[in-house]
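in:
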């Protein structure tokens, strides 16, 4: 295994996950605000599942997103 190749590939994947996740969350929040499903002062519980079948990785990451 080439550690440098793995690290660069992992960083690219995590950057893609971060950018895509942020865009999707922001769009969903804006839509929920427009639809009056949110008022704009909530704290939203969030979770994300990370899986890599080939190595048996299956983990959930929990957190919160504060709107105000």
């Amino acid at each position: 295994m080439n550690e440098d190749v793995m690290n660069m590939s992992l960083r690219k994947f995590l950057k893609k996950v971060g950018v895509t996740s942020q865009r999707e969350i922001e769009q969903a929040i804006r839509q929920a605000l427009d639809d009056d499903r949110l008022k704009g002062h909530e704290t939203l519980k969030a979770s994300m599942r990370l899986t890599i079948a080939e190595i048996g990785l299956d983990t959930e990451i929990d957190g919160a997103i504060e709107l105000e």
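note: Helices lie at 3-34.
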